Amino acid sequence: MGIVVIKLGGSLIQGLSNTFFEHINLLQRNGKKVIIVHGGGPLINNLLLKFSIPVEMEDGLRKTSNEVLEVVEYALNGKTNKDLVIMCNQFNLSAIGLSGCDNLLLEASLYDKGKLGWVGEVENVNTSLLELLLTNDYLPVISPIGVDKIGQKYNINADLAAKSIAKALNAEVLCYVTNTNGVLNSEGKSIEKITKDQVQALIESKTITDGMIPKVQSALDALDEVQSVAIVGENFLNEDGSMNGTVFTKGVVFSE
Ligand SMILES: Nc1ncnc2c1ncn2[C@@H]1O[C@H](COP(=O)(O)OP(=O)(O)OP(=O)(O)O)[C@@H](O)[C@H]1O
Ligand SMILES: [Mg+2]
């Protein structure tokens, strides 16, 4: 089954254009099975501000105390997931909202020995649950809260969650839809094709910062298992079906 995993950035969710949903519709009509994983950064930040809880980020990852985790759950599992499911279904996309906690969809453990609090990394993806939904033409819409076997919940960066899901399902496409038209160079122009070495250099020169760091790193990490990986803007499909943004490639290997 040709699976397309779309990571939808939190900053886009409230003002999404019809084109985004029409592109998903087009993918489905072309026989692709689509999964959406969503973030929710701006809403989480607004809620934290309301509760007077400081926003602390490290290389694009959110430090997650007990109280931050609670707010992340309200924002992602609550409002964002359901808003997005409702929007999808207005376009007849048969969306079903899930969190990573549902039937251990995203089984998680502590990221980096807990240095960032309750940030999680994915240990296992319940692929049979997703396959069941995809086979029956549902569109899973997933919020990236993971859980472990003893019931502890984790805040998983949505870019990393999307990558883990795409790898576990051997997806055909992993597409990060964000609020820029791909990875921008030092002149602010979108880079068409990018390799691991270029990504490294752009992080070192601080051209790639903040939330773009986990995105490019997870994009590179997915390349072995996923045929096509890209970071794109909201109108993510070109007329010929190619991705409109930055496409990741393994780079040219020269033999002697
Ligand atoms: N070189 C770069 N090219 C493009 N964006 C960059 C770059 N370096 C840093 N960024 C920042 O990364 C942001 C995208 O990551 P961000 O985490 O904010 O959004 P998202 O992942 O789409 O949403 P969410 O985290 O809510 O899921 C851009 O809006 C931009 O501010
Ligand atoms: Mg992000």
TrEMBL record:
One example GO MF annotation: acetylglutamate kinase activity
Domain of life (superkingdom): Bacteria
Designated name of the protein: Acetylglutamate kinase
Annotated signal sequence range: none
One Pfam family recorded for the sequence: AA_kinase
Catalytic activity: N-acetyl-L-glutamate + ATP = N-acetyl-L-glutamyl 5-phosphate + ADP
Main location: cytoplasm
Its biological purpose: Catalyzes the ATP-dependent phosphorylation of N-acetyl-L-glutamate.
Keyword Cell membrane: no
Keyword Cytoplasm: yes
InterPro entries: AceGlu_kinase-like_sf (IPR036393), AcgluKinase_fam (IPR004662), ArgB (IPR037528), Asp/Glu/Uridylate_kinase (IPR001048)
EC assignment: 2.7.2.8
Top-tier EC class: transferase
Record-level GO cellular component terms: cytoplasm
Pathway the protein acts in: Amino-acid biosynthesis; L-arginine biosynthesis; N(2)-acetyl-L-ornithine from L-glutamate: step 2/4
Aspartate/glutamate/uridylate kinase domain span: 3-231
Keywords: Amino-acid biosynthesis, Arginine biosynthesis, ATP-binding, Cytoplasm, Kinase, Nucleotide-binding, Transferase
Subcellular locations according to the entry: Cytoplasm
UniProt similarity note: Belongs to the acetylglutamate kinase family. ArgB subfamily.
